[in-house]
Amino acid sequence: MFAFVQQAFAFLRSLFPVNDQEPADYPFAASDIAQLHRIGGGMVAASVDQPTWEGMLLDSYFVRLTSQVSIFGKQVLYRILRDGQDDAARDALDERLRLLSGDPDRLAILTEACKSLRHADTDIATLLFEEDLPAVPKWAGQGWLLGVGLTASVGAVVLSPLAWLGAGFFLYQLIAIQMRFHERLAVWNRAMRSLQMMLRGASLLGAIDHPLLREVARDSALAGKINRGLSRFVVDLVPGMREYRDWFMLANVKHYFKGVGIVGLHRQFLRDCYLRVAGVEADLALARHLLACGPTCRAERSDGAVVIEQAVHPLLERPAALTIALHGRGAFISGQNGVGKSTLLRTIGLNLLAARAFGFCYASRASVPMLPVFASMQSEDSMLGGESLYIAELQRARELLAAAAGPGRIICLIDEIFRGTNHLESVSAAAAVLDELARHGTVIVSSHNLVLASLLEHRLAPLCVAPGADGALALSPGVLVQTNGIALLAQRGFGTDIEAKAARVAGWLGAWLAHPEGAGGVLRGGAVELRRA
C-alpha cells in the first residue's frame, strides 16, 4: 500500500516537475550566453566590439550584473548590453525598474519564483529560434512491436530452434536503434529539462498578481500543459522497469519523438514565452542591482554633450567620484602616473554603455549622447600571434577609423595611443589618427605625450586629472605641469645619481616638448618654422 502511495505521489509530482534543491548556477561558457545575440543577427556596426568589451572590463561587470540569474536572463541582458536599446525601450525599462525597485518585498517574491530557472544547465535559444527539428519517422510510435517480436521469438524457441534467428534479428534492431539515438537523446533530454524549467518559471510567475506579469499570466495555462506533455511518467512497480521499457519497447525513443512533436507544434508560443520569462528575469536582475549598487540616476539623452556628475565605477569598492563636462569637443586628459587615468576612462565608458543599454548611469546626474562606444585600452603585443605592440595598436586604430567612417557619430575612448614605437613617430601617428577620429565623433584620450594637447587643441579640450581635497578625481582645464615620473625613480630605489641624470635630461627636453611653438597649426595645414639652437 505504501509503495502505491509513493507511486501516486510521484505521478502527481511528474505533472508539475520541480527541483527543490538550491540552484547551482551552472557556469555557462561565454558562447552559450551570446547565443541569443548571435541568433538575432550578431555583431552590427553599433554593437560593442570585443576589444571594447574587454577594455571596459565588461565580463566582470556582467558577472556583477547577473548574480543569481539563469541562462535565460543572462542571454537577454547580454544582448541588450552589446547592442543597446532605442529611446522607447529604455523609457519602458525605466518604468518597469521603478515599479520593481519601489517594492522590495514583491521583488523578493518574484525573484523566488524565478529560482527554478537557474536549474537549467543548457542553452535552448538555439533549439527554439534556429535549429531545424528532426523529422518524426512513421515507425516512431510502433517501436514496441520489436519488443513483442523479440518476446514471441524467444517463446517460439520451444517449438523450433530456428526461432533464435528471429530473436537475434529483433534484438539487433533494438540495439541498433538505441545506439543510433543514444547521443541525440542525451542532448535532447538535457534541453527538455531546461525547457521545462522555463515553462515552470512561466507558471509560477503567472500565478503572481503583478502588472508586469499580465502577458506571462496569459501564457501560464498553456505553459503548464506543455510542461506536463514533455514529462515522462513511468511507474516502477518492478525495479529497473524504466530501463527494460527503454531497451525492449523503445519507450525513450518514443518519448523523444513525442517531445519533438510537441516542440514543433508549439514552437512560436515557446519562443514568445522564452522571451517574456527571460525579459522578466532580466528586469528583476537590474532592479536588484540598482538597489544594491548605490546612487544611480536616469541618463538623459543629449545632442552631443557628455555631462556626467559624480560618476563612479560599480566594480570599485571605494570609487573616487568624478565629474566631466564636454560640450562640442572631446578631451585630451593628462595626469601624473598612477592618478587613475585608465580608471577614469573606464568609468566614463561604462557609464556611457549603461546609459545606452539600460538608461541609467552610476552618477548623480547624466546627460549623454546615446552613441556607439569604441575603446582602445593599451593594446599588448602577442608572442604567439607574432604581432608586435605597435602592429597591434595600428590594427586597432584602423578598426576605430573604419567605425568612425560609418554613417553616424561615435565615441572613442583611447588610453596611451601608440606606445609601441619611438616618441617622434608615436606623437606624429597619434596626432594624425586622433585628429581624423575627432572629425567624426567624440574622442576622449589620455596620454603622457603632452605635446599632443597643443597639436589637437582645435579638436580636444585639454584637461588635467588630479585627486581633489575630498579624494574625488577632479578635472581642470589645462595640461599637466608637475609630472612625477622622475620622482618615482627615487621612490622605487633607483638612487640619486640616476634620478639627477634623468632630471637633467627632462629639463632639457621638457619645455619645448610640453609647449612647442606653433604646434596648434600643424594639423590644420599652417606653416611651422623649425628653429635649431
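Second entry:
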Amino acid sequence: MTTTEVRATCPHDCPDTCALLITVTDGVATEVKGDPDHPTTAGVLCTKVARYAERTYHPERLLYPMRRVGAKGEGKFERISWEDAIDTIATRLGAIAARDPQAILPYSYAGTMGLVQGESMSARFFNRLGASALDRTICATAGLTGYKYSIGAALGTDIEQFQNARLIIIWGGNPIASNLHLWTRVQEAKRRGARLIAIDPYRSLTAEKCHQHIALLPGTDAALALGMMHVLIAEDLLDHDYIARHTLGFDALAARALEWTPARTAAVCGLDANEVIGLARDYGQAARRGEPVAIRVNYGVQRVAGGGMAVRNIACLPALVGAWRHAAGGVQLSTSGAFPVDRVALQRPDLGCAPVRTINMTTIGDDLLRPASPAFGPAIDAVIVYNANPLAIAPDSATVMRGFQREDLFTVVLEHFQTDSADYADILLPATTQLEHVDAHLAYGHLYMMANNAAIDALGEAKPNTEIFRLLAARMGFADPCFAETDDELAAQAFDASHAHAVHFDWESLKRKGWQKLVVADAPFANGGFHTPSGKCELYSAAMLADGLDPVPAYIAPYESAASNPQLAKRFPLAMISPPARNFLNSTFVNVKSLRGVDGEPYLDIHPHDAAARAIAHGDMARIFNDRGSFVARARVTDKARPGLVVGLSIWWKKLATDGKNANEVTSQRLTDMGRAPTFYDTLVQVEKAPVTVS
C-alpha cells in the first residue's frame, strides 16, 4: 500500500477557509483532517468538512454527462458522452448568441470559493461570448457596501487577535455553527476574563454561551447602533483624540445620535432601555479603561431592507471609542479586502467587445419570466448554472421554479449531485470536488493565501469547471491562447505579487506549504489610514450622498413590519428568519445522510406564547405561509425564539424537505438599501397547525 498526505483547502462559503491534510492510500482519500500547523485551523475541522470524503465518494455522485428525458423538474435523465454534451451546448448557445448573446446568463456563486474553479475560465468564456453579466449579490454585498462607506475596504480585526480582547460583541452571527475557529479564540478570551455579548433575535448556540444575549427584533440593528452612539456621546465615553485625528463628520453624527434616546431605541428594537444603556456602557467603559473591545459583525445583520446601513452604523462604533488603537480591537466583517486578487488576469474582461447588461442573481425568478423589452433587453433564453443551486437558495422560490420550468429555456447545470436545480437541467454535467482538482483561495475570516492540490484522480468522467469551459470555448471556436491555460497557470495569476500584502507570493511555493500569511499590520487602523476617500473613518460620507443615500448613520425600517406596513403585519404577524442549520452550509451537505440525520427534517422554532395562541404543541407539524407561498416544518416550542419571531434553520433541498418546499417559499425578491442584495430576514408570516400531519 502507498500512503501519501496532500495539502488542500476547504472550498466552502465559510470565513474559516481551513487548511486540510488529505490522507490518500492507493489513490483513495481515506481521511480529511485539519492542518495542525495552520494557525487558524489548528488541526480542527467542523463536523461537515471532517466528513468531506463521505461527500466525495457519495453513492449519488454525478459521474457522467446526462441529457434530460422527462419533464423539467422531474429529474429523469439518460447518460450521454462528453462529446455529445459539449456539441449540444455549443450548438444551442451558438444559435442564441447569433441573435443576441445577452440572452445567455451564467448563474454561479460560492459552491466553491476557489479563484480558479470559481470565476476564472468560466468568466473568460462568458466575457468572450458576450453573455449577460451576473450581479452576485446573494450573500454579502449589502453589508460590504455599508462597511466600505465607513471603513473604505473589507479589512478589520485579525482573527488571531480576538483571544486578547476584553469585551467581544458577536453581532448577528452564530460562530459555533459557521465560524468555528473564531469561536475557539472567543472562548479563550472568555477563559482569560473577557465579557461576551451576543446580539441576535434568536438565542443561537453561540448566544447561549455568552454572558449576555440581547434579542432585538429582526432588522433593527441600525437603530441599536444609533442608541449606543447616543449613550456614548451623552456620557462622554469617547476617544476625542482618535475622533479628531481619524474620523470625518462627528458633529453630523452627534446630531443624528441625539435623536436616538435609549427609550426610542428600545421601542424600535423591542428591548428594555436598560439593555441599550448597559450595552453602550459595557463597550465605552471597557475602551475607556484601555481594554481591547472587538465586534464580530456577520451577514445576518444585512439581510433586511436597511441591512447595508446597519453594517455601516456598527462599523462606525470602534472609531468613537478608539478601539482601533489595539490589535485586538475594532470590528471584523470580512478580511477579503486584504487579498490582492488579480481578477483582471483571471477573468480577462478585455475579451468582451461591448458593455453588457447585468442581471441580479437575487431576482432570478422575476427575470426568467420577464419578456424582451427595450429596458430589459432580450428575454433570457439560456442559463448555465455552476457552483450554485438557485432552486433551493434564491428567494421567492415558487417564482424561481416557474422561471426554470419554461420549456423554451435552455438550462445547463454543472454539479456534484442531482440537486433541486439539477432536476431542471437540459444537460447535466458532472463536476469534480475539491479533492479532485487544483485551486487557489483567499479567505474572508483570516489573512492566509491558500493552495489546494488535487489529492485523487477525478471520479468517473467528472471534470473541473475550468476544463468544462475550456471544452466549450474550443468547440465554439474561441482561439485566444488564454483558453488553453492550465489550472496551475491560472492559480499562478491568482494574487498580485507586486502588491505589498502578497510580496512573497509564488504559486509553486504556496502549493508545497499550503498557506502563507499576507504582510499586513496587526492593528490596521491604529493610526488612521482608512481606505475611504478622506483616509478617515467616514461618519459622514459624501460618497453615500452622491449615491442617493443618507450620508449620516440612519435607521431604515424593515419592509415587512408593523411600522412600515401595519396592514400586512395584521395578516402576517410573525417575523421569520432562516439562518444556517449547524450541519448544512447553505444548501451544501444536505444530501449527506449522516449530517442530515442529525435533525432529520426541517424544524420551526416558535415561542411558547405564539405557539399557544395557535394551538400548536411541541412536535406538531406547522404550516408557515404568506402571500408568496408556504412550507411545512415540525414545530419546536422554545423560548430560543423571542415572542413574535419564528426561526426556520436552513437551507434544505426542497426534494428532501417534508413537503417538497423550503423556507424560501416565503422570502421575497425585494432588495436592500444598498448593494442590491436579498432581504431574506425581512419576512412576515403567519403560522398555523398543519391541517394534515406529515410524517
